[in-house]
Amino acid sequence: MSFKKVPPSVREVVAARANYLCEYCRCPEAFSTQSFTIEHIKPRQAGGENTLENLAWACSGCNAFKHIKTRGIDPQTEQEVTLFHPRQDRWQDHFTWSDDLTRVVGKTPCGRATLNTLNLNRQGIVNLRRLLVMDNRHPPVD
Predict the structure, then answer these.
(1) For residue 128, which phi and psi values (nearest 5 degrees)?
(2) Phi, psi (degrees; rounded to nearest 5) at 8
(3) Would you say 52 and 14 are in contact if contact means Cβ atoms under 8 Å apart?
(4) Whole-angstrom Cα distance, residue 98 to residue 102?
(5) 3-state secondary structure of 105
(6) pLDDT given at position 5
């Protein structure tokens, strides 16, 4: 199976649309130690295409944890649910920030499943958020 590479012009459109934030963990690209990437919401292996509606801007960590997954288990209900879809869902409907603003909290089955599946509170990101909060650069304004 051969996949067409996403052109740089489309990458820039996707990045700008996301305000240069990971569309899952909300990490700002400017402070990431790794390159951000195009993430196929519906994986190419499952027939997902290089259309703007199927592309998300993601940090390497979220992209690696999501990989080809589209579903996850909600730890509260133990039910399998669809993961957060950046083109169809609003982040604020499924997630919020902890009181200290360093951790993502899932508000819905979709949010909780995505939080666990993509490990949105990886230690490095929590540390970065803590520093950004101290510098009044977090949480991002939507």
Answers:
(1) -60, -45
(2) -55, -35
(3) yes
(4) 6
(5) strand
(6) 84
Predicted TM-score (pTM) of this structure? 0.95
Residue 74, burial from CB neighbour count under 10 angstroms (0-12, 13-18, 19+): buried
Query: For 42-60, how does the pLDDT look when each residue is reduced to its tens digit (9 = 90+)?
Result: 999 999 999 999 999 999 9
CA distances from 110 to 22, 48, 97 (A): 17, 20, 16
Tell me the sheet residues that pair with 106: 95
Residue 45: both structure tokens together:
């292996």
Q: Mind listing the pLDDT tens digit for each residue in 79-120?
A: 999 999 999 999 999 999 999 999 999 999 999 999 999 999
Q: How many whole angstroms separate alpha carbon 121 and alpha carbon 47? A: 29
Is the CB of residue 87 less than 8 Å from the CB of residue 56?
A: yes
| Largest distance between two CA atoms of the chain | 47
**What is the residue-wise DSSP string for 25-87?**
T--BGGG-SS--EEEESS-GGGT--S-GGGEEEE-HHHHHHHTT--EEE-TTT--EEEPP-TT
Contact 111, 73 (CB under 8 A): no
